[in-house]
Amino acid sequence: MSEHFDVHGGARLVGEVEVVGAKNSVLKLMAAALLAEGTTTITNCPQILDVPLMADVLRSVGCEVKLDGDTAHITTPSELSHRADSPAMGKLRASVCVLGPLVGRLKKAVVALPGGDAIGSRPLDMHQNGLRKLGATSTIEHGCVVAEADGLHGAQIWLDFPSVGATENILMAAVLAEGTTVIDNAAREPEIVDICTMLTEMGAKIEGAGTSTLTVQGVESLHPTEHRVIGDRIVGATWAFAAAMTRGDLTVTGVNPHHLELVLEKLRLAGADVTTFDGKGFRIVQPERPRSVDFVTLPYPGFATDLQPFAVALSSVSEGTSMITENVYEARFRFIEEMVRLGADARTDGHHAVVRGVEKLSSAPVWASDIRAGAGLVLAGLCADGVTEVWDVFHIDRGYPHFVENLNRLGARIERVATEPERA
Ligand code: EPU
């Protein structure tokens, strides 16, 4: 049985909404728990599908995982399995983040290639090259990354691109390597800072978190900790776009506005009044129809690729023409095909999209291709005439806790309906 959302157009979102822990942090923090024997506690976990999936991944290598509301208790035994090839692995991208900790602790890992969103090619060459520099062999065999080392030693590693996942895997292997590892052109995302903070609490020695150069002094062993996940900046930004698109007035808490500086600046340029509350959240009021703004996706602190669908959705109802450039995932413009079904005046040329704003979108059945595209279609549906059916909403459930409930509380009218889809 498939589920879809019936999104009634014409909503104006008003009120307060709290953002909880970041999906792209909690899943990696859960993997980091593999590095220390004993019970690690992670709080402020979002209630999204990917968290129990990651719990299954950890159980498959021997951990006990208890999910209790927004808290995860992960008990890592002294003897772990090096084989992470359960079916759960294929259901999310972050599962590959057990590779670094398993190689770090066991000097050996067989990790099934991860699943995740269909947003373009997602190779693991930088993860593998980093592990090789640390002294491991790494090959792809029968759908798994296989890595093995006699011992890990510190190394100088240059990444071709500041990959989030490669930075995390190399970091989690390097914390238990002998000597000093320097990762240059490392990712600088707030989620990287979060994992560095947790690893440091566990006894790791890391300098440079949040900069392009991470220096890791390997230690013998780590100990468990209790750690609170940072607020989800992508979810926070989603609410900011929701306010701008619906000419609403939203106060968003639980997220650090410094993690959203460029996003909030773009929305100011689109005509929003934005007030930030230091470290805690922001308020965004959109008094009139938004004005068109250009967007270019780049690694942090650039404009996040995960927000590109919202940039397209906002532009499609703004006054004027926007150019949107996608530099990270080539297939993310698939979202535009669905927006065109909703009456958006948009076209792509390579990694650029040109969107001419229309006064109102027009409801239609549309299909979510990934988490962010799904949420983008829901917001677009709020700006359309009539009832928009958004299909394949399990994508949205993977990343947005209580999305529909929150939207309805803020003034939207959306129903979750369970039926079989009939694709035109
Ligand atoms: N890349 C390589 N080789 C590698 C690794 C990456 O060529 O070994 C390329 C990718 O193909 C891509 C770019 O580098 O073009 C960036 O990939 P990155 O490794 O930074 O992404 P990721 O770690 O796989 C995370 C998030 C994504 C988010 C990206 C970029 C998680 C679980 N996923 O993916 O989030 O888009 O960083 O910020 O943390 C989402 O939440 O909806 C989502 C897709």
UniProtKB/TrEMBL annotation:
It is found in: Cytoplasm. Gene3D superfamilies: Enolpyruvate transferase domain. InterPro entries: Enolpyruvate_Tfrase_dom, Enolpyruvate_Tfrase_sf, MurA_subfamily, RNA3'P_cycl/enolpyr_Trfase_a/b, UDP_GlcNAc_COvinyl_MurA. Residues 8-407 form the Enolpyruvate transferase domain. It is an enzyme of class 2 (transferase). UDP-N-acetyl-alpha-D-glucosamine binds at R93, D306, V328. Phosphoenolpyruvate binds at K23, N24. NCBIfam families: murA, PRK09369.1. Belongs to the EPSP synthase family. MurA subfamily. Cell wall formation. Adds enolpyruvyl to UDP-N-acetylglucosamine. This is UDP-N-acetylglucosamine 1-carboxyvinyltransferase. The gene is murA.
